[in-house]
Amino acid sequence: MKTRIQELRKQHKLSQEELALAVGVTRQTITSLEVEKYTASLVLAYKIAKYFDLTIEDVFDFSELEEI
Hints:
By secondary structure, the protein is mainly alpha-helical. It is 54% helix and 0% strand.
């Protein structure tokens, strides 16, 4: 699943570590999300979206799931 996490993080001048601490995960989790090796849980997706004051759909691309 594609995300805008890296783009949003850079726009807000945040390191992976800073974002990870803000949403309660490890830096490695943020890295895995950014390179699409990990799919966020609904709770984590909500926390990330809320942190950036966006909706989940603004951060995560669900278009691949619509084909199912």
